[in-house]
Sequence to fold (255 residues):
Amino acid sequence: MTDTPVPLLEFRDLRKSYEATEAVAGVSLTIPQGEFVALVGASGSGKSTLLKTVNRLVEPTSGQVRFEDDNVESLPLAALRHKIGYVFQSVGLFPHMTVGENVAIGPRLVGERLSAERIGELLELVDLEPDMAARLPDELSGGQRQRVGVARALANEPQLLLMDEPFGALDPITRDALGDRVRALHAEFGLTTVMVTHDMAEALLLADRVLVMDAGTVVADETPHSLLAGAGGEIAQGLVAVPRAQADRLAELAR
Ligand SMILES: Nc1ncnc2c1ncn2[C@@H]1O[C@H](COP(=O)(O)OP(=O)(O)OP(=O)(O)O)[C@@H](O)[C@H]1O
Fold:
């Protein structure tokens, strides 16, 4: 008999309430190492709250998140966050620090100094020029800042990459290019990635597995292929209908 490998990430009946609002209402699932998971659902369905319980930006009301079979609550916070890269929509670069200093901040927090060469390599991973390290965040476009955010998340060589609407504020071309780049980096570094997105088309194109949330629970857990074949139930299919209708209208126009 072969042993089942321990999942990288596991949610066990996870719940989070804010007074009367049950933001996460009992989520149980496992995510194996290497998977690229998209978390989709309407605004307010609990996606960000669920994601933030992993790096302990949110403390659950009950239940557990397990990372490599340890309850995240039992791990030293710095050690946990060292293993997890986190990218979010507003990027959160420190405005008074250079791009290079921003990229190096994670390692610095654990007493490690990144060389200029390593910072340059990290910038090149996200298709930025190494000499951008000397600029201030203000001197970059939104898309470039978001790339810096991804480089910063990779600086600790994380096992897990959490992304919360990482491309939400970007124009469609930059968004596509950066999405493809992140998917390539996910494969290159053997990452496990969980990405929150509003955009079902993005989820279908980038992820191996799509979780659909509604009112704090996961109502569908499907591959893109099975979602496109009609699986996942009414809420999931309502979300899939949007890019499908767009694709149909474009095909119609091209005739
Ligand atoms: N800090 C908080 N205090 C009170 N209520 C909160 C807090 N954070 C989230 N909520 C509520 O919990 C619910 C889930 O919010 P959450 O941000 O997780 O949803 P989401 O699916 O990520 O939404 P969006 O797509 O709009 O970002 C919402 O009703 C929200 O108002």
Summary: The longest helix spans residues 233-254. The mean pLDDT is 91. The pocket of adenosine-5'-triphosphate is lined by residues 18, 21, 23, 41, 43-49, 198 (CB under 6 Å).
